[in-house]
Design goal:
213 residues, single chain, mainly alpha, 2 domains
């Protein structure tokens, strides 16, 4: 009798965990599917809030906070009023900190977001902030590449950095073009670790590559 009750309890627990996992996966997929459209409808702030709520509800998953940080730093990067940018980037930094804490250690995708956060701070005042934030962004790109040499996103960010760097300082379209070409090839070969893991960046790489002609 005790064995039967124990078996029933285990079955109920397993079913409950599966239902919770399925609910989490569905919620995440719904939000991830909206990321591409966020560029055109300024949907990043709302998506960031949605991902953060998923993270707060789940408590043990790092990906919701990763995507919340990604959506937040994208908001910072496209913010036209630079007096608001630092605060938005700081929010992204807090979110990526939560993701890193739950992940247990830094990984390539977390380093990518850290690089983007530094770039957001940099663009507020490039002339005066380059020495500080330019180096932080570059360092995180290198860490992302080392953590996962197959990840195309840090290579894409490297190309973007070169694209916007004046030729006199070692940048320009001619320098960026082969980096974008490499990133595009890597996107074709890249296999994410799971269905909820990041895949973004290919379309942006194609766009910048088209601007290098």
């Amino acid at each position: 009798m005790k064995k039967s009750l124990l078996l029933i309890a285990v079955v109920l627990l397993t079913v409950g965990s599966f239902a919770q996992s399925a609910k989490y996966s569905t919620a995440m997929k719904t939000q991830i599917d909206q990321l591409a459209a966020a560029f055109g409808n300024n949907g990043f702030p709302a998506l960031a809030n949605n991902f953060e709520r998923i993270g707060d509800a789940e408590k043990t998953q790092w990906l919701p906070y990763y995507y919340a940080a990604y959506a937040t730093v994208m908001s910072a990067l496209i913010e036209q009023n630079h007096s608001k940018t630092d605060a938005i980037a700081d929010k992204a930094e807090a979110l990526i900190g939560k993701a890193e804490s739950l992940a247990g250690a830094p990984n390539s995708e977390l380093y990518v977001i850290k690089s983007m956060i530094a770039t957001a701070h940099l663009q507020v005042d490039p002339q005066n902030r380059w020495m500080q934030y330019g180096q932080v962004s570059a360092d995180n790109i290198e860490k992302a590449k080392q953590a996962d040499p197959t990840n195309p996103r840090p290579v894409y960010l490297e190309g973007q950095s070169k694209f916007f760097t004046p030729e006199a300082f070692g940048g320009g379209k001619a320098v960026a073009k082969p980096i974008f070409e490499k990133a595009l090839t890597m996107f074709s070969d890249f296999k994410p670790a799971g269905e909820l893991y990041p895949t973004w960046g290919k379309e942006s790489t194609e766009y910048f590559l088209s601007q290098c002609k």
